[in-house]
Amino acid sequence: MRIAVTTPTGNVGRHVVATLVRAGVRPRVLLRDPGRLAPDVRDEVDAVPVDQYDADAVVAATRDVDALFWVNPTSGHGDPLAEYARATDSVVRAVTENRIGRVVFQSSVGAEKRHGAGEIDGLAETEIALDGTGVDVTHLRCGYFFTNLEFELAALRAGTLQVILPLDQPMAWVAPRDIAEVAATRLLSPDWSGRCVQAVHGPADLTWREVGDILTAATGRRSPWSASPTTPCARNSARREWSRAWSRPCSACRRASARTSCPNSPAPSGPPPRPPSPPGPTTSYDTGSPTTSRKRAAGSRFL
Ligand SMILES: NC(=O)c1ccc[n+]([C@@H]2O[C@H](COP(=O)([O-])OP(=O)(O)OC[C@H]3O[C@@H](n4cnc5c(N)ncnc54)[C@H](OP(=O)(O)O)[C@@H]3O)[C@@H](O)[C@H]2O)c1
Fold first, then answer.
1. What is the mean pLDDT of residues 138-166?
2. Contacts of 174 (CB under 8 A, 6+ apart)
3. How remote is the CA of residue 190 from the centroid of ligand 1, in Å?
4. What is the arithmetic mean of pLDDT over 253-269?
5. What are phi and psi of 28, to 5 degrees?
6. Residue 247 — pLDDT band, cuts 50, 70, 90?
7. Which of 252, 246, 258 has its CA nearest to residue 148?
8. Per residue in 62-110, pLDDT tens?
9. How far is Cα 109 from Cα 242, in angstroms, rounded to an integer?
């Protein structure tokens, strides 16, 4: 089976590549700079230099491919929806022109809303476009990556955990490596077809207070973590939209019922968009003494 993998240097893609290699597959990896591949996989893959926004290049790079792991690259500019739309054009053309049999798409919790979830709306558009091709597709609706905390390292070192949701509101977190295991399993398995939606969450939803406790336990820092004031900058606004989406998984994505199941059902007509809830209060957060989170003991991979 010929499997192509996009973003092989990304949080999830690099683990997808490693998992496929361990499974005995030699994946074709599409990336801008092959020199950025992890040294231990360089000799185990066929690397094709590709810009995912260049649809012609993506089509050329995916000829003769049976299965494709597609990730819309993380937006590097101010208009993620426009970039996701360009990426969508590339994957639709590749699937259509090369008659690729199956696609695993890295989507997000919140895509089921279709509108009102900020950047996630762009992932929803990709889902809809892939559905329209008739390809066998699995949309992985992922929780909030633990690796997002790496963007906050400077603030965390200074003892600040930026909190946007109310402290005790749970949301779905997940380790990218866990997503990769699900993605690789999907790519390798012949036992599914049609349109599938699969939620990929960690073993437990976590509140920001619990995440703070985990961080305190992991770092040994006893200094208080405090929420930064929510400023009206674009970044905080985006985080707020995403956080809202992640904090309210739809019934189809609830971990208990759908973490490993695939409804294999026809595309729904789509739930009506829900109005966004007001942002949570800006809250001071003082963990005081470190405590070990029960959730972490439950097996969540952290960073
Ligand atoms: N963060 C979350 O909590 C979360 C949750 C659900 C879904 N998602 C979605 O997951 C995706 C991001 O996945 P990730 O975190 O695994 O990726 P990531 O670590 O942010 O890496 C981005 C990847 O995109 C590649 N890339 C960037 N621009 C490219 C281009 N023009 N052509 C080809 N490759 C390009 C980068 O390659 P280089 O080596 O060339 O830089 C890198 O491999 C986004 O679509 C996001 O919406 C994120």
1. 87
2. 142, 143, 144, 145, 146, 200, 201, 202
3. 27
4. 36
5. -90, 125
6. low
7. 246
8. 999 999 999 999 987 779 999 999 999 999 999 999 999 999 999 999 9
9. 9
Torsion of CA 3, 7, 12, 15, to 10 degrees: 50
Mutate to test the pocket of ligand 1, among 6, 7, 45 (most ligand atoms within 8 A of CB): 7
Q: What is the largest CA-CA distance in the chain?
A: 59
Question: What domains can be seen in the chain, in order of their start residue?
Answer: 3-297 (3.40.50.720)
What is the spatial distance between Cα 175 and Cα 220, in angstroms, rounded to a whole number? 22
Residues 204-235: tens digit of each pLDDT: 999 988 998 888 888 887 555 555 444 444 45
What residues line ligand 1, using a CB cutoff of 6 Å? 7, 9-13, 31-33, 36, 51-53, 71-74, 106, 108, 119, 123, 142, 144-145, 148, 176
Average pLDDT, the chain: 79
For a mutational test of ligand 1's pocket, the pick from 28, 74, 112, i.e. the residue with the most ligand atoms closer than 8 A to its C-beta, is 74
Q: Distance between CA 69 and CA 8 in Å, rounded?
A: 10
Q: Enter the DSSP assignment of 23.
A: T
Number of other residues whose CB lies within 10 A of the CB of residue 235 = 10
